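hey all, quick one before standup. I had two proteins in the batch that finished overnight and I want to keep them in one place so we stop losing track of which output belongs to which input. First protein below, input sequence then structure tokens straight from the run.
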Amino acid sequence: MGLDLGDREGLPEALCVLLQDYPRDAWESSDNFGALIRFWLERHIMFRRLMVALREETERALDGNIEPAALAGRVSRYGSMLVGELHGHHNVEDAHYFPRLRQLDGRLEAGFDLLDSDHHALDGMIESFTKSANAVIQSAGKKAEWEQRAAAFRTGLIGFETKLDRNLVDEEDLIVPVLLKYAPPDLM
């Protein structure tokens, strides 16, 4: 199993040391499960929901159940929200949270490097997503061109959704246990 975002099926075992002590099913019952963790996880849920909505709406349009112009509006609205929120989320993580959390447990240093690498890979995927979304929007009035671009957009969405979810799950499995164990007062 490689460590690249598209290759891995989860965090390497060495990076799951805190997850063993703080398994997912016990997170919400922890005394340190507070507003920051809840907010952060809700952001991840929002990203997942936006990806599902984009994929499902594109599939509905390709099946002829909604008009290309209606899809263009939804891709514009949901896509803009996804891109803007992902960029903002990653900037806050990279500039504020990850550098601070990295200092709390040296065993997880490689995990933060991995998440940083993920963010760089996702930047390229966000750029490709944006180009493909714009192509769908701009071709809404040209049936043959639109069908080809919408099909390509859907294919790209599937890959992007899978890799984004891998990153989100791995972030959660690394970060939430750190927050639960150490509860840094400057972040909580």
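OK second protein, same deal, sequence then tokens:
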Amino acid sequence: MRVFAVNMRTDAERRKHILSECSKHSLAVEIIDAVIGKELTELEIKKKVLNFEDSGFTKGEIGCSLSHLNIYQKMSSENIHIALILEDDAQIEAIIRQALVEIEEFDKAKGKPAIYLLTEAEKYVQNFNIPLKSVTLHKFHRGWYTQGYIINLKAAEILLKHLYPVKNYADNWRYILFSTKIKIYTVIPTLITTVKGMESTITADRNLAEKNKRIRYKKKVMFGRIYNIIRFFAYYILKRPFYKIAAVK
């Protein structure tokens, strides 16, 4: 499995960290230079973002989204069937190599567009599970973060078409769940955490953004297509009553 880590070229400390972390687990990682949102020109933002002024998105979020889309483009161009994508503040658990082998085998057998979240999800479906040897795959219910996830080529190509120009931020997994046919799994136990004191500045920027504007825009994008509305209400009416939702501890 190919391994990519997103890192800003100006942040040598974080690059050193993620290289060390991957080396510790014998992961051959390729560093992908992050798109630095604050360096984007107004013309670039107009071209690459669907409706920046109305979205309430921060430039950091835009840079993050474009960075991940660049990896999906690389996967498509180079026919990379599956990849582990990390951010440079990731801390990796010891069983990662075994888990990667198991998930890749499962993914190949299924052959469906899929994303496997290795970070701590907010909530997952406890009674929808697929046990592998070292980890269990659960149906995703709610969560954020892009510090560590696996994505296959079919899912990457769907997101390339669906998320560009940028209309949502990279870690809005619920939007992807309801707006595409991509399967999203939460991997238990959590395999990727964030190094304390090395958290992304994107979260801090989000806290300063206009919350009401963001909420209105997210609803507009989520419910702007009949397809999304049907999937959203089908999920909550036909499926949600039968799901036992659990929080990651």
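Flagging for whoever picks this up: Residues 2-247 form a domain with the Spore Coat Polysaccharide Biosynthesis Protein SpsA; Chain A fold (CATH 3.90.550.10). The longest helix spans residues 59-78.
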